């Protein structure tokens, strides 16, 4: 954004030295520091379980090796690109964000965080300090599947799915509308959504691909769930 | 408006007086004369600017020089030792891993990162690891072979 002169701030504060880089499970909750890189996520043993598989599956497809060494989960959330992958995973997993500023701390559900393309609920000078994911119960499985635009690698459509032990499912989709969103109707995952129609893909194509990635994500999450029961 | 700050590059401390908005690639090339990091695109995609930060490959066109303060920066110029090529460099020579050479320093540094964590990658793993490094000359096959040969040499204990 800075290089393209789209953002021209008068002051830039480097937060990369704050102690906000962490992956930890405490009391049934997964805590991810906002400065945790994609590579950190790929190497975190805490995420190596079927219930949380969507996180590493998503991180492994991010950008390239250099991007995975620098890109962070908090950065992705705060940037709120309509086709960003990890926010869909956090939506499907029911994540909650801890925000902090000089005015104090507050909690915002991931589902209420993105307000539009590149627009979030963050106040000026407010920082994401923790991303909290309830660890799904035993016998759950999650997965992330996307169809990428071949040149940019951004999702034309991506789906994150969580299948719980009781068979209940939580699905989120990214890449087809102004923000990633939670799916209410599995059979028509794009129902009520204003689907993008642009030079990358028609709305009709995006709707078709959405059905495909939702189905594949559910199938893979179910396979992970089976693994957890063995 | 320039500021003074310190960068450690290839084991040497440098004090630079540059504008805070200076990208790491420009600081290396223009302030330090280390022109092995190349600028190949506008969009942080081509990877020709790749350098190592704490041993990890990063695109120096997407890092402000200030952000590298307090970390170890290593460029292609810092790989050879006492005039002898690093095994990865030798492998690229032996296996024709370059033609024009524009992408090559970056390819070698990304390979350095890969091999430091996965000493015996297969072809597919090498190709995946090099997704952020574009080559317009070779068609990549000779690069993959060079990286695999470098891995073999390093496993056999080659240091040079």
Number of strands of chain A: 11
Mean pLDDT of chain A: 95
Largest sheet of chain B: 5 strands, mixed
Radius of gyration of chain B: 16 Å
Order of helices and strands of chain B: EEHEEEHHHH
Shape of chain B: globular
Helix content of chain B: 25-40%
Order of adjacent strands in the largest pleated sheet of chain A: 1-2-7-3-4
Mean pLDDT of chain B: 96
Strand content of chain B: 15-25%
The quaternary state of the protein chains shown equals heterodimer
List the main descriptive attributes of the protein structure presented here.
heterodimer; A: 230 residues; alpha+beta; five-stranded antiparallel β-sheet; four-stranded antiparallel β-sheet; 6 helices; 25% strand; globular; B: 160 residues; 5 helices
In short:
Chain A is of the alpha+beta class and 230 residues long.
Q: In terms of topology, how is this protein built?
A:
The complex is a heterodimer of chains A (230) and B (160).
Chain A: E1 23-26, E2 29-32, H1 38-43, H2 53-60, H3 65-70, H4 73-79, H5 86-92, E3 96-101, E4 104-109, E5 114-116, E6 119-120, E7 127-134, E8 141-148, E9 155-163, E10 169-174, E11 181-182, H6 203-229
Antiparallel strand pairs in A: 1-2, 2-7, 3-4, 3-7, 5-6, 8-9, 9-10, 10-11
Chain B: E1 3-9, E2 12-18, H1 24-31, E3 50-53, E4 56-59, E5 72-74, H2 87-94, H3 104-117, H4 123-129, H5 141-155
Parallel strand pairs in B: 1-5
Antiparallel strand pairs in B: 1-2, 3-4, 3-5
Helix pairs in contact in B: 2-5, 3-5
């Amino acid at each position: 954004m800075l290089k393209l002169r789209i953002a021209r701030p008068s002051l830039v504060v480097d937060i990369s030295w704050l102690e906000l880089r962490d992956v930890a499970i405490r009391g049934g909750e997964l805590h991810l520091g906002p400065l945790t890189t994609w590579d950190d996520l790929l190497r975190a043993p805490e995420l190596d379980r079927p219930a949380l598989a969507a996180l590493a599956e998503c991180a492994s497809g991010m950008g390239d090796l250099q991007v995975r060494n620098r890109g962070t989960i908090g950065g992705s959330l705060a940037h709120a690109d309509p086709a960003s992958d990890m926010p869909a995973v956090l939506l499907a997993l029911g994540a909650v964000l801890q925000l902090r500023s000089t005015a104090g701390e507050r909690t915002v559900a991931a589902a209420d965080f993105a307000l539009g393309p590149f627009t979030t609920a963050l106040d000026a000078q407010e920082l994401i300090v923790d991303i909290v994911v309830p660890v799904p119960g035993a016998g759950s499985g999650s997965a992330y599947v996307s169809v990428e635009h071949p040149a940019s690698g951004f999702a034309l459509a991506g789906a994150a799915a969580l299948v719980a032990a009781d068979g209940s499912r939580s699905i989120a989709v990214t890449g087809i509308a102004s923000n990633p969103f939670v799916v209410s109707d599995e059979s028509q995952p794009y129902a009520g959504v204003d689907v993008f129609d642009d030079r990358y893909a028609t709305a009709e194509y995006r709707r078709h691909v959405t059905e495909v990635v939702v189905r594949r994500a559910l199938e893979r999450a179910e396979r992970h769930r089976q693994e957890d029961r063995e | 408006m320039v500021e003074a700050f310190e960068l450690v590059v290839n084991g040497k401390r440098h004090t630079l007086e540059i504008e805070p908005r200076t990208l790491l690639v420009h600081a290396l090339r223009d302030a330090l004369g280390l022109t092995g990091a190349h600028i190949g695109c506008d969009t942080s995609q081509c990877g020709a600017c790749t350098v190592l930060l704490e041993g990890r490959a990063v695109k120096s066109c997407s890092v402000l020089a200030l952000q590298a303060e307090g970390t170890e920066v290593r460029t292609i110029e810092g790989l050879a030792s006492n005039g002898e090529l690093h095994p990865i460099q030798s492998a690229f020579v032996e296996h024709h891993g370059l033609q024009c050479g524009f992408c090559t320093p970056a390819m070698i540094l990304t390979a350095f990162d890969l091999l430091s964590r996965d000493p015996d990658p297969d072809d597919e793993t090498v190709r995946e690891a090099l997704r952020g490094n574009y080559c317009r000359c070779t068609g990549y096959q000779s690069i993959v072979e060079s990286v695999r040969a470098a891995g073999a040499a390093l496993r056999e204990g080659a240091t040079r």
